[in-house]
Design goal:
The structure holds two protein chains of two kinds. By secondary structure, chain A is an alpha+beta fold. Chain A has five helices and twelve strands. The termini of chain A are far apart. The chains are: A alpha+beta, B mainly alpha.
Chain lengths: 286, 174
């Protein structure tokens, strides 16, 4: 017995194992904020990374450009066809917008869940560990970013802010496995059907939209948007299209597989979204 | 060579891991997930050709950075990197120091760190990946790519580190 305790290396190993377990437990706890040490370290590394990132991106961008050039002709043809539809659509949007404003004034309802402020951010890193898909972006609490804000690309929703430090933030992608990754969403149709995005099917590469009422009729190809009911997300951010609908294990609700519209790889710039209605409330509180 | 050569080398490798994943984030052939472990290679080579103390210190510091900045699971790499440096140093008591053993130990280290992180993710339910999928999709391709990389850089890396180590010994007055 005394010999066992005299073995210094073994004791060091055991102590560090205990510290390891304690630290993992600490970091798994649902923390609302990082410690100031973590924030400081993170910002320092992100600052250095943003210096190295520029030349690296230039080199990678060159190869991408060469690749793009090869497909230019076909793409051009396709885009020209789109352009004509686009003009029509734009005039329609314009008139609808005006009508919406007028009706809003009539109702004296100024703010809406749909309005949001956009914070542009550049992605300067990704988790190299690749177990949890997260991005590091170069905007932080100094620029108004807060935890749990929605993050989008022009194609659609990609995730939410996981943690913030003064000059950087970590974005958790929708494809990351996290039980707290719940997003209130609705399926657009003649009658909007509400549900919750809970989880991601890695094999099918589709999001799971759960808790849809069993009698709701949903077709393949219907579009899914955020509902804005969950708290911090604004309404109407595009998530994706329904791929398939199945009954859940008890048959009480339905589950829809939603193909995300945004590409979770190859993301260079993102938009962090701040809901306007919250800002109005904050001002009133002050 | 500069006094700060070693620390800047490790820092640059550390930063590049994240940037490379960001620039080439598509899975290879749409299936295979490649995980960069260049930091680990440098760590093993450093332990062998510069010294155990350096290996363990850098392992601890950069393991901690890795945890804080990238994974946000504190402790996992902070524990693994110094332990690997320690085990490599112990194994060197019986084996010869050359580029081949260093390459071999780097590959073993990458393999064990991959399984170690997989085990941790399973325990904290951070993944639903089954062991066979993990083996095919992550483990084998990562190991394969790194074997090629190691074979390419083993000799120059060894020479650089040895030369740097000698310079440091000469310049230190003690």
């Amino acid at each position: 017995m005394p010999k066992f305790f005299l073995n210094k290396r073994l004791i060091i190993l055991l102590v560090s194992l205990m510290v390891l377990v304690a630290l993992i437990g600490f970091s798994l706890k649902d923390r609302s904020e990082l410690t100031w040490m973590e924030k400081f370290v993170k910002d320092t590394v992100v600052f250095m990374q943003s210096i190295v990132h520029k030349p690296a991106q230039l080199v990678a961008g060159f190869f991408e450009n060469v690749n793009d050039l090869r497909h230019t002709y076909e793409e051009n043809k396709r885009l020209k066809a789109h352009l004509e539809q686009y003009v029509l659509l734009q005039s329609e949007v314009e008139s609808l917008k005006k009508e919406n404003e007028r009706l809003r004034e009539l109702l004296e309802k100024k703010e809406s869940l749909r309005d949001f402020l956009a914070i542009q951010a550049t992605v300067i890193g990704r988790n190299p560990d690749r177990w949890k898909e997260t991005l590091i972006v170069n905007k932080g609490s100094q620029h108004g970013v807060e935890k749990n804000m929605a993050v989008i690309t022009p194609q659609g929703l990609i995730g939410k802010v996981r943690s913030v430090s003064p000059f950087s933030a970590t974005v958790q992608l929708l494809s990351a496995k996290d039980r707290q990754n719940r997003i209130s969403a609705f399926i657009q149709g003649d009658e909007n059907v509400f549900g919750l995005i809970e989880g991601y099917d890695e094999e099918r590469e589709a999001l799971l939209l759960k808790r849809i009422p069993y009698d709701a009729k949903i077709k393949k190809g219907q579009r899914v948007f955020t509902s804005g009911l969950g708290g911090i997300f604004p309404k109407g951010l595009f998530i994706g299209e329904v791929e398939e609908v199945v009954a859940d294990e008890y048959g009480l609700t339905q589950i829809a597989y939603v193909k995300p519209a945004a590409n979770f790889y190859d993301i260079d710039d993102v938009i962090i979204v701040k809901r306007k209605i919250d800002m109005v409330q904050e001002e009133e509180e002050q | 060579m500069n006094r700060f050569f070693l620390s800047s080398l490790v820092t640059v490798v550390f930063l590049f891991e994240s940037i490379i994943v960001q620039l080439f984030s598509y899975p290879l052939f749409d299936v295979y997930l490649l995980v960069p472990r260049a930091l680990l290679i440098v760590l093993v080579f450093m332990t062998m050709f510069v010294g155990q103390a350096e290996g363990m210190t850098y392992g601890f510091i950069f393991g901690l950075l890795y945890d804080v900045v990238y994974t946000e699971i504190l402790g996992a790499y902070t524990f693994a990197f110094p332990l690997i440096a320690y085990l490599v140093a112990k194994a060197m008591n019986i084996l010869h120091k050359n580029a081949w053993t260093a390459s071999f130990f780097s590959i073993v280290a990458i393999a064990s760190v991959e399984w170690y992180t997989y085990a941790i993710q399973l325990v904290i339910s951070g993944t639903t990946m089954s062991a066979p999928t993990f083996f095919q999709v992550r483990f084998l391709p990562t190991l394969f790519i790194h074997t090629i990389v190691i074979l390419l850089i083993a000799y120059p890396l060894k020479q650089t580190l040895l030369k740097w180590g000698e310079k440091q010994d000469e310049s230190s007055p003690m």
